[in-house]
Records
---
Amino acid sequence: MRFSVFLNARSLGPEQDRQLMKDLESHAKLASQNHFDAIFLPDHHFNGYMPVASDSFIFAGYLAAQMPHMHFGFSVVSVPLHHPVRLAERINVLDQLTDGKLLVGVGSGTTPEEMIGFAVDYRDAGRISDGNLEIIEQLWAKQMEDPAVVIDNGPYKGRVLQRITPAPYSPGHARLMPVAMKEASSRRAAENGWPAFIPAFTPPRIGGTEPFEHVAKWFGIYKGFLEDAGHAPEVVASALDWTTHTYQCVHVAESDDQAREELEVILRAYQDAVEREAEFNARAESDAANTKTDRTPNALSEDWIGTWCLYGSPETVIEHLMPYQELGIGNILCGTTTGPLTQKRLELGNQTVELLSSKVMPALRAAVPA
């Protein structure tokens, strides 16, 4: 079982943005020194959630230069918010800079506020995402002598005459990672031999206290498609090796009581930040084109904690993860900086990284292929 760190902190204002970037850099280096396998970044715009995620590819390239042994991933790129040419180019550049140690999570996005900033109708996000992915595959496959690739998808237009540069490092292109929540996404990942993100809920309810049931369901569907796709055994093994289950907030302490107490401090600050942003979300959803059809529970509710959190003593965390290891989940993605990144929050995140590394990871990690 692999372990990766998800950089998912919040800034409460422009005066905090620079320090957040510096603190995330130091936290990523700590994860690297403590033998985590990868650093994952989100893709977000306009709000306080990970200000540097407005261009995570730049930040990933900066970090990759300092820790060349690490894998880098995205959880996830909101495909409708990117022109397909620019997304194909960015992925190729980072694929080259990381020597192919790149995992690009792809999804249709969740936030109307971000959609309106890029002139995307929220109702069309899924269609635009699928269209962009089809165009990007055409761009990656195009040779200079091939006919032009014509782009006409939502707000994105264009005509590519030559080719995407640079060429990818990985055969074909870097690995994509769809979210295995829709049959089409699971099938796309499986047929291409890609890993996938395995969710712990089933919409429209985004929460609950029985996450393993959902993980087992979605993983079973994806694995079935993967095994039916006719890949060589090593392709199946590589895909499962990076198939990922995500916890938005992971917190480990010496005892269960201490972990719960500190978790609630973290989540109160997180929920306060979310509520501060609610006014702008409401403005974005003021018309039918941008109204969400699902709602996330309050972060202090047991439904949210049950779905999105992993916490406790090292022994409790190991016990919790063993069924996921037995199921076949290859990578646990740990949100270790959830909420506003105060100095105290950074100390708690560093505590979690060090306890995971020293006590949890050795118990769950078999020999991991390169």
Note: The radius of gyration is 20 Å.
---
Amino acid sequence: MSIESQTFTERYDLLGCIQCGRCTGGCPVTVRADLNVRRFVYDAYNEEKLEELARLAEIWDCTACHTCAVRCPKGLKPLEVLLGLRTMIVESGKVEPTVRDALQSVLLEGNPWEKARAARSDWMEGLDVKIAEPGVPVENLFFVCCTIAYDPRVQTIAKNLVRILNKAGIDYAFLDDSEICCGSEVYTLGEEGLFEMLVEDNTAFLNEFSATRLITLSPHCFTTYRKQYPDLKMPVLHYTQLLEELLREGKLTWKGDLQKKIVFHDPCYLGKQGDVYDEPRQLLKSIPGVELLEFDRRRERSLCCEGGGGKMWVESTSKKERLAETRIKDAKELNADIVAVACPFCVLTLEDAMKGLGYEEEMRVAEIMELLGEFVEA
């Protein structure tokens, strides 16, 4: 049966839901918004109500963290019902201007940040970066991510990684300005047509390279390429997996030490969706002097920072405490000096929360690559 001929109920397997409520019970957003995932699944049985449901503001509160999918005893993905309702709104053209502009930017410039396509690799200036060429064999082909490529706050992730790769002497190459959005946020914002186009174009583009594996810097790209690009000819890894491998092989050494208490925040797209939990922790523990702490809500129970699911372009109507603020308060209770993350969106949301709470003199939010770059052997 084609997707076009499926009913909403069939496409999202609504009849498989047993209405146990575990999705809503585990949803981190319910503590600050009126989102009831179980109720949406139940009401969507009645296809005559779909347009009414799609107009509810709560469908935009979902961060696509996948907690509901992790907790579902039937193996369903309740969040996809919300994404399906978003698609209806996008197709009607009645979306927020910020969403419209982000999607249009992806179409025209290959990124959602309304930045020039030709400036995508400007972050490489002054660095000795190896550039990939179609047909030229390379072991590790790197995909940078729109946010890291354009946002000065997180460009350090890519810059420090280049320094470490050059020092380790491994075979690698980065893409140039021809790299375009993987479509992660396009998909969660509900623009199915544009997402399908990106999958087709990126698959054809990436398959031109003779690479052993594709290494992503963002968990969002990591999950998207692994799960939604069925015809990609190379396996996909997150950079923490590669660096942990190099660490085990003795190809990474650090200078100095860091006498700090660090707590690691598991990004939803890396942990819940990518099942990568241990590698980031091994990298942090490898830094001499580090005392690694753990949140109570960690690994598959990690608290979402609210940066995913297109939330960078959709403002919540709730005035209750943001989840990122809750996360920073949890870190303060642990007396952590540094909240370490492995995702550019987590950096931006958690750092904003930390500053909003006035903790910037006591605590630091740092992406793992920021920390490792400070201790790479010169």
Note: Strands lie at 138-143, 172-174, 211-216, 236-238, 261-264, 291-293, 338-341, 364-367.
---
Amino acid sequence: MRAMVYRGPYKIRVEEKDVPRIEHPNDAIVRVTLAAICGSDLHLYHGMMPDTRIGTTFGHEFIGVVEEVGSSVQRLTRGDRVMVPFNVYCGSCYFCARGLYSNCHNVNPNATAVGGIYGYSHTTGGYDGGQAEYVRVPFADVGPQIIPDWMSDEDAVLLTDAVATGYFGAQLGEIAEGDTVVVLGAGPVGLYAARSAWLMGAGRVIVIDHLDYRLAKARDFAYAETLNFTEVDDVVVWMKKATDYLGADVVIDAAGAEADGSFVQQVTSTKLKLQGGSPVALNWAIDGARKGGTVAVVGAYGPIFSAVKFGDALNKGLTLRMNQTPVKRQWPRLFEHMQNGYLKPSDIVSHRIPLEHIADGYHLFSAKLDDCIKVLIEPGA
């Protein structure tokens, strides 16, 4: 089969790999019909995530058609059109029983923290991802879901991570009616978080980024106020002024490990790899939230040290909430919002690229060229 293959930082190409096979009776083999490039994939592409091995296939956002199932699989049959959450999870361990699918204890040798994630380094279990023609899906009775007839492929693929993660970020914020919510980062997750904040009762939503075209999308798609942080001397001071000098009730960090805004933090984290990610957005969130407010983190960070202002969070009495998204837990409510016309995930898609041109897709997305917001990958094109 043809698959995207990692060859080192900023080096990917499409190569022939063996078609995955059933390795366990609970497995399914899915023929990928649509995948996506996620902002988290860029952390791998840039060499930010530890233990990203040569030969790995990325891609944790994908949908497809079931080609083969293991002898124990009961819920799926050949020909089913399925959406697959980015979490690999068993469904029965201590954490899965509590809905913490992203923290499954049985799918990752490094499971003291995160569970399994498709195509996201050996830090998350070493599973090949869906930027390929075929993918092996473990625990096929637990994770995948048959796509409803009313749902388009483009909407379905975005629900496998980006939409669910943005919605989860807003959930973590525990937004009360009338709250002022600030979202840091106007990529796909930030856009969905901002849109979701309204669904949870926010009275005001502000999105902060440094790219004008993404901020324009935040105004159009998420109905948010916006700030280009390069146009102010101090983002935190601006946030305080915009909230009667109190700070935001809820701040959602949807930027994560490669947040811009500080040259020193960028060099030490993204260039020298001395931190698990640039803590710029997280520190802005801590400083910009009101005392007693909530900071929700859904932007991805690596597992090593980051210079975060934890003492300030303590002294302000902030609630810090974060996790990798338990994707399938978000789907029932998101399905309702979509059917009621409150959300159309594919409205943010900007580029559709054949698998053979995936290197161009990564370059477009990484360099923010051609007003790129979200790239879909078509294996069959």
Note: Residues 262-276 have pLDDT under 50 and may be disordered.
